[in-house]
Every structure is written in structure tokens, then in C-alpha cells.
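Quick log. Single chain, no ligands specified.
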Amino acid sequence: MTGDELVSIVNEHDRVSGQATVKECLEKGLLHRAVAVLVMRSNGQYLLQQRSKSDVWHPGLWTISSTGHVKAGESYEAAAARELLEELGLSAKLVQVRKCLLPPIQSGNLTEKEWVSFYVARSDLPWRSDPEEVEAVKEVTEPQLRRMMGGDTMTPDAVILLTDYLKRQSAPK
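-> predicted structure:
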């Protein structure tokens, strides 16, 4: 998604109150919608992507398999499927883990304020990354993922979402 594409501006209850471009949202810290998809392999590994080094938002940092903004009028699930296909060339069944309001996150002079719908997709299909959006892709084990989350190589939103996800996975059922 380019900075010129329209997204819905929402309130703290995730109700639409207007529209703005992604660029305006980041520059003004406007609350909008986003998605994140974590791809799990049958061997228990997770697929992560490294953001493009030319991106204005946390360039070169590692993040969840696929992330992006929800276009104006688009559903969270449709956006998640679109982003997964655009960024990694994958189509898979999406299972929503949760939707949450993230705290404002800074990158330079930009502020991201988002409602994020987090999904898990299980797929062993080969990925095909978009070189304009994705610098690299790798599969990691859970211990490797936890080490990355504790360092400074992962986006803050990914750390928040993955911490919650891993805590939910280890909680007694």
C-alpha cells in the first residue's frame, strides 16, 4: 500500500469517522485499521519478514509474516488475505487470534495509531516475497523468535502482538 491510498479513520471503539491517506495517518497520528498475519509451518516454525530498508516505517526491522493497512471500505479479513498474497505470494486460511488497540508507536517523526486484527495462517507452501516491500524472509523456531523479540531487531508492534500470542499459546486451556 502506498502512502496515497485511503484508509478509514476510526475512534477508540473502532467506528469509522472519516478517511485519510496512510501518509496523513502517520504524519498526524490518526487512529486507523491494520492487520498482521503470522504464518506457521507444520514443523512448528514461524515465517518472519524483514521490512524493506527503503521503507519510511521501521526500515530493515523484522516483523510478523505479513502486515499492512486496511483500505477504506475493506474488511480486516480481506485486508489480511490481500497483504499475505501481496507480500509473500501466499493464500491460506486465516484464523483471527484477536483484535486490539495498540499504543501509539513512533518511527522518526511518524506516529502509528492502530486497531490491529491479528491472524494466524498455517501453510507449508513456498513464499515469494515482493522485493519492494520485503527485504528478506526467514523461518524461525519459537526460541529464536523469543530471542529476536528481546533485542532491537524487531518492530515494536510485532513484539507487542507476538508477546500476547505466545502467552496465549502457553496458557492452560
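The two ends are 38 Å apart (CA to CA).
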